[in-house]
């Protein structure tokens, strides 16, 4: 799930950069890319990847 949100943020960053949209200092394309990279890194680390079985039941 976090990887999908990261991909959406990458798309927003690309659109801001490609359309040359003037934004304030908080909503720059670089900030969107960094937040997207952080979310993808969390997904790769196993956080937010869904439910995990904690043990086996018989």
Task: Describe the overall structure.
The chain crosses the membrane at residues 34-53. The protein has 58 residues and is an all-alpha fold. The protein is built from 2 helices and no strands. Helix 1 (2-18) runs antiparallel to helix 2. The mean pLDDT is 81.
**What global shape is seen?**
rod-shaped
Rg calc: 16 Å
Say how many strands there are: 0
What string, H for helix and E for strand, traces the elements in order? Answer: HH
Strand content: under 5%
Topology of this protein?
Blueprint: H1 2-18, H2 29-45
In short:
The chain crosses the membrane at residues 34-53. The chain is an all-alpha fold and 58 residues long.
Key features?
single chain; 58 residues; mainly alpha; 59% helix; transmembrane helix; transmembrane
């Amino acid at each position: 799930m976090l990887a999908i949100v990261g991909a959406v943020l990458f798309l927003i960053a690309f659109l801001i950069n490609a359309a040359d949209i003037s934004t304030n200092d908080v909503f720059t394309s670089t900030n969107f890319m960094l937040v997207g990279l952080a979310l993808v890194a969390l997904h790769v680390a196993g956080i937010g990847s869904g439910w995990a079985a904690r043990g086996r039941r018989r």
